Amino acid sequence: MPPAHRISIFPGAQAVARELAARIAHSLRKKPALVLGLPTGRTPLLLYAELARLAAAGAVDFSAATTFNLDEFYGISPSHRGSYRSFMQRYLFDHVNIDGDRVQFLDGSAASAADEGCRYEKAIDEAGGIDLQILGIGSNGHIGFNEPAAALEARTHLVTLKPETRRSNAELFGGDPEAVPTQALSMGMATILDARSIVLVATGERKAACVEKLVTGSISTQLPASFLQLHGDVDIILDEAAASKLTL
Ligand code: F6R
To answer: Which atom of ligand 1 is nearest to the CA of 42?
Structure first.
């Protein structure tokens, strides 16, 4: 069976970032009021730098766009330096002409995680749904904070972070994994699959095995990214290292 997704492979991470930034700029030209779903992590750093470069050159316009980020730590305020809200401000929002009122984010300081999840789902609905969801992927196949498990949550929910996930986020908290919050809020798999189109980006050798399983394996809650096979409009953009285990 041919893979259900469209796969594009570029020589390196910089070329991947250029391609994805160009696609986002094109989508914004076609639909200025685009509703964009965004990830954090190391992978999108080059993308955000490229979008900042395009913005400085006047080649991308976020003025009518709305963004929803995938996830946020729970138990810290949005203004905390380690929050994903702060990450996005530093790497993207400070560098593009987005209207702050249209930046939507899970609030890690919300008193009730359940209420915050419902609020976020409603906000996505009221914005008309996500047009274009950009995703990274964890080396264990996680998407957002939807970690491999016996069962997955459909909608935005509270997650207890695994020790390895806290370790991989330690950089945001002065290098100390113990300082990383133990819980997070994340869009669920159904929230993600509701997006009209999805672009998953993966770079580096560390992602090669999960990319191969995502493309050729069966759908399993043990590889949350495999649920993307149920979506009809998924692009996977890879560098050669992340594509190295694919036989296309
Ligand atoms: C973060 C997110 C995560 C990351 C994944 C990969 O918002 O959605 O699923 O995409 O952990 O992270 P990096 O890019 O650091 O390898």
So the answer is: 15
Sheet holding 157-160, edge to edge: 71-74, 183-186, 157-160
Token reading at 232: 């009809």
Domains and CATH numbers, the chain: 5-239 (3.40.50.1360)
- Report which of 183, 76, 186, 64 is spatially closest to residue 128, judged by C-alpha positions: 64
36 CA → ligand 1 middle, Å: 16
8-state DSSP, 151:
S
Active site (annotated) includes residue 240: no
E strand or H helix at 71: strand 71-74
146 is catalytic: no
The catalytically annotated residue of 19, 50, 131, 147 is 147
Active-site annotation holds for 142: yes
pTM listed for this prediction: 0.97
Amino acid at 189: M
CA 97/CA 54 separation, integer angstroms: 11
Helix (H) and strand (E) counts for the chain? 7, 10
Whether residue 77 has pLDDT greater than 70:
yes
Catalytic residue among 19, 50, 71, 116: 71
The pLDDT assigned to 119 comes to 98
Around ligand 1, the residues with Cβ closer than 6 Å are: 39-43, 70-71, 136-138, 142-144
Average pLDDT, the chain: 96
> For 123, phi and psi rounded to 5 degrees?
-65, -40
Question: What distance in angstroms lies between residue 135's CA and the mean position of ligand 1's atoms?
Answer: 8
